[in-house]
């Protein structure tokens, strides 16, 4: 069995140092992966201000060799508002995802029965346009797949979100085109339908995954639901815009 604390410490150190590690021993199951991630959350010493869902469509799950999506934390010092400039190490994968994110208005604590979509939606304060920078600190992590990526901060490098919409229920989450541009050039488009068929479905899965692991989500946390436009690699220095139409934009710069 993987030494979860030793592996967690090596992943935390790689994050702090901006380095890449080669692992001789990797988690052999998703349960082991989450055990390492639990140790990362315990030992990193950073406040968790939100949660992310990953691999939220069939193609992504197949590519990442997992039968279900994945869940991970968003740490306070790596969460930004739209317009921020973020320095990334040269080895950063810089895989950019345009995502719908939800700010929670009230707690949804762990419980035995699953939360319904209506219950989860009723706990939402606002809907936000967002960008996640995905990265793995493990050599070949994206090729290995979910067993390593979940342990490795669920492949999160940084997250940014724009202003929200409180009256969001009539917003066309499924049909609204989302456009991702880099340095003024359109790179990719997509819709919320790519996110488990509906970002609210992904949000509900994320809440219930947290609940099943004995956690829950808290008022004031932001939950991001997975990419609408795929994972798009970008250069170390660039300006990005994820445009969600009437919802607004999330802007982010990568800098040397």
Keywords:
single chain; about 260 residues; alpha+beta; five-stranded mixed β-sheet; 15 strands; about 25% helix
Q: What does this protein look like?
A:
The longest helix is centred in the N-terminal third of the chain and has 15 residues, at 30-44. The protein has seven helices and 15 strands. The protein has 256 residues and is α+β, with helices and mostly antiparallel strands.
Structural class, from secondary structure content? alpha+beta
| Helical amount | 10-25%
Shape type: globular
In the predicted model, the low-confidence regions spanning at least 5 consecutive residues are none
The mean pLDDT is 96
Radius of gyration from CA coordinates? 17 Å
Q: Whole-Å distance between the termini?
A: 39 Å
The counted number of beta strands is 15
Q: How many H/I helices?
A: 7
Percent range for β-strand residues: 25-35%
Major beta sheet summary: 8 strands, mixed
Question: Element order, helices and strands?
Answer: HHEHEEEEEHEHHEEEHEEEEE
How is the topology of this model organized?
Blueprint: H1 4-17, H2 30-44, E1 48-54, H3 58-63, E2 70-75, E3 79-81, E4 84-87, E5 95-104, E6 108-109, H4 117-122, E7 124-134, H5 141-144, H6 146-149, E8 156-161, E9 178-182, E10 185-190, H7 199-212, E11 216-217, E12 222-227, E13 232-233, E14 238-243, E15 249-255
Parallel strand pairs: 1-12, 3-8, 4-15
Antiparallel strand pairs: 1-2, 5-7, 5-12, 5-13, 6-11, 7-8, 9-10, 9-14, 14-15
Helix pairs in contact: 1-2
């Amino acid at each position: 069995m993987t030494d979860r604390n030793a592996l967690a410490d090596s992943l935390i150190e790689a994050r702090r140092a901006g380095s890449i590690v080669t692992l001789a021993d990797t988690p052999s199951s998703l349960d082991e992966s989450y055990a390492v991630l639990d140790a990362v959350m315990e030992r990193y010493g950073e406040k968790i201000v939100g949660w992310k869902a990953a691999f939220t469509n069939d193609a992504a799950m197949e590519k990442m060799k997992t039968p279900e999506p994945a869940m991970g934390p968003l740490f306070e010092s790596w969460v930004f508002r739209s317009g921020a400039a973020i320095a990334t190490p040269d080895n950063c994968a810089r895989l950019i995802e345009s995502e719908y994110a939800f700010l929670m208005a009230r707690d949804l604590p762990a419980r035995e029965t699953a939360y319904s979509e209506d219950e989860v939606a009723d706990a939402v304060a606002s809907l936000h346009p967002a960008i996640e920078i995905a990265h793995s600190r493990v050599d070949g992590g994206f090729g290995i797949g979910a067993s390593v990526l979940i342990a490795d901060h669920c492949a999160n490098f940084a997250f940014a979100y724009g202003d929200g919409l409180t009256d969001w229920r009539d917003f066309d989450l499924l049909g609204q085109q989302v456009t991702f541009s880099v340095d003024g050039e359109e790179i990719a488009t997509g819709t919320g339908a790519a996110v488990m068929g509906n970002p609210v479905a992904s949000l509900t899965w994320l809440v219930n995954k947290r609940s099943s692991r004995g956690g829950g989500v808290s008022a004031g946390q932001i939950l991001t639901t997975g990419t609408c436009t795929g994972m798009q690699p970008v250069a170390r220095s660039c300006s990005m815009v994820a445009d969600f139409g009437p919802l607004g934009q999330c802007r982010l710069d990568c800098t040397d």
